[in-house]
Design goal:
The chain has 387 residues and is mainly β. The protein contains five helices and 19 strands. Strand 3 and strand 4 form a beta hairpin.
Amino acid sequence: MTTPNPTRRIRDLAASDGFGSLAATAHKPNPLPGCAVADAWLRRPRPARQRPVSKLRRVAVVGIFLLLFAAHARADEAQPAPCAERHPMTDAWFTGPMLANTAATAPRGHVLMEPYIYDVVTQGNYAATGKHQSAPHQNTWGSLTYLIYALTDKVGIGFIPTFDYSTMTGAPSSAGPGPGDLIAQLQRRVTQFQPCGWMPTISLAVQQTLPTGRYDRLGSRPTDGFGGGAYVTTPEFLSQMYFWLPNHRILRLRFNVTDAISGTVPLEGASVYGTTAGFHGNARPGSSFYVDTSLEYSATRSWVLALDATYRNTGNTRVTGSYPLSTGAPGPTAQTNSGWSDEVGLAPAVEYSWKPWIGVLLGVRLFPAGRNTQDSITPAIAVNIVH
C-alpha cells in the first residue's frame, strides 16, 4: 500500500481548484467603457484586504486537505486486507499426492526425504482389445525414497533409490530383497505462485534412470528381475496451482507431463523381457508418454484428501536375438514385438500432517482400464519430511 503524500495532495488542490487565479481577478478594474467615475473610484487607494483573504484561503485549503485525508484514511480502513493475508498458505499442510511430483523447490540448503513402502499386487492383464484376462498372482513388496537437496532456492538435485522383493504363483520367490534401478533427478523452478495470482508454480526437470537393478541372467528365478536394464532419460514439465474455495479451504492442483526415452538393452538368458535361458540379443524399449493430474483438498489444516488421475502410453518394445541350436551354433535371429500399450490410473489417498514439515500419506493406485498392459493394485504408505 502506497503511503499518502500530504505535500503532493496540497499542491494538487491549489492547482486544480483555481485558488491562485481567483486572487488575481478579485480586484480587476471594471473593463466596461463609459464608466470613468466608477473607474476612477476603483483606482482610488483603499485599505488593503489581502490578509483576510489570504487567511481565509489558507483555512479553506487546510480544511479541504483534512477532509480528504480523513476520507483517504477511511478508504484505507475499508479496503480488504492484502491477498496474502486473506489467503494464507499456512491454512493447509500438504504432503503431496501419491504420484504427482511437486513443481515447488525447497529453500537453499534444505533436504526433502520421502520414503514409500508399497505392495504391487498383480491381478491380471488387459488384452490389446481392452478385455481383462487372468494372470498368475504376484506380489512385489518394495520401497522408493525421494532424497532431494536444494542447491539454491530454484534448483534441486537428488536421487531416488528403490528396493524390491517378489513372490509369484507357480514360480520361486526372489532370492532376497534387491536394488532396483537408481534414478537421478535435476529440477529448475521457472515461476513461483503468488496468492490471488494467475501464474502457477512451474518447474522443468529431468530424470536419468541408471540400470542398477538385475534384469537378465535370472536363471530359474524371474522374480529376481528388479530393473529394466536401460538408461532412460525422462524430461518433465511440472506445474502446481492453488485455489481458495467459498468455504475458505484450499484446493491444490498439479498437472505434470513426462516422456521417457530408453536406450538399447543387451540381453543374455532369462530376462524381464520374457526371454529364457540361452538367449543372446537385445531389447529396444519404446518411449513412454505420461500425464498426471492431481487434486488435494484441505479438509482441515492437517487432514487432506488427494486424488491422482493418470494416463500412460508406451510404444512398442522390440526384442531381437537368437537361441543356440542343439549343435551349439547360434540359431537364426528372431524378432518379437510387444505392441504399444496404454493405461488409465487412479490413486486416491489421505494425507495427515502433525507439523508443517512432516506428514504421512496412505493411498492406493489402481488401473480401471488399459490395453496390452498389466492390471495391478498398489497400496502404499509414505512419510514426507523437509529438514
